[in-house]
Each structure stands twice: as structure tokens, then as C-alpha cells.
Design a protein that fits this description.
The protein has 180 residues and is of the alpha+beta class. Helices cover 22% and strands 36% of the residues. Strands 11-12-7-13 form a four-stranded antiparallel sheet, with helices on one face. Strands 1-6-5 form a three-stranded antiparallel sheet.
Length: 180
Amino acid sequence: MSRIGKRAIDLPDNVEVAVKTGRVVLTGAKGVLEVLTSSDIQVNVDGRRLSLLNLMPDQKVSRAKHGLYRALLFNAIKGINEGYVINLEIVGVGYRVALQENGLLFSLGYSHQISFEAPSGVAFQLEGQNKIKIIGIDKQLLGQTAAKIRELRSPDSYKGKGIRFAGEVINTKQGKSVKK
């Protein structure tokens, strides 16, 4: 049995839970999220506590799903109650970002500018021309959006120029040595 899956989740006062076949709908102060569940995991709500029961504890895949769905439900509850923020930094001379009506416009040293459209449920805030805040309630969607933005110009291994997560350390290579 999963150690993580056994733990119950305490529900905040402003979160409502509706358990349906194959999914759990969570409603909170910041919005509504739906988490799909497997048929071998049963979700129970007892007052202000949410718990998961593994119906097939002898199967390895089912034990893994037990902890997975508990973590997904916990992240969804935190998202609709508090929200999530991911910070990105753009490092490089002439690299910048501008806010458009439906997304971001990047200048990343290519011969053209790159337009990035925001998925629904994701908002962007800029701090200057080189810092991006990605804001939303769905942790998985925010992480995927941040990864797609970082992929536009991932940090190079020689000078460290590119898009990186705030506080990320880039190990740079030494480069060619000069003969003496």
C-alpha cells in the first residue's frame, strides 16, 4: 500500500468536492478543476477530509496509482485555494519579452520574433523586459507552459544565455583553451 496514498487530505473551508464516476470535481475560491481517477481507486469525502482507498492493493500498478491520485488531488486543492506561480528569467544581451493581448512576444537573438500564445487558464505578468511570471491554478498546465517557453531558447552551455527558471544554476563549460 502506498505511504502517500494512505494520508488523508484536510479540505479548506472554501473548497467543495463532488465525486463522480472516474473523476473528482473541485471548486474553490480561484476556480474549478477536474481530476480524472482510475476505477481501482475509490475517493471518499468524510466531512472536511478527503481519503483514497485502493481497491486492488495486490497489484503494483494500482499501488502506484494510489499515491499518484492523492498527489494530483492535493495539488488541485492547493491550486484552487492559493494558486501557483512559476518565475522565468531571460538572460542574454538583446533578449527580451513583451506582453501581447493573448500571450508573449519574444526577441531571442533569432532573425525573427517569436509569438507565444497563452493557453486557457494561464496568465502572464512581466517584471521588466526579462522576467516572466506564469500564474494559474493547474500545476501541471503551468509546468508544461514553462517548459514550452524555456524550449524556445534553452540556456546554452558556454555563456548561459537563454530562458531559465528563476534561481536555476547553469553549469557552463570552459570552452577552448589557449595554447601557451
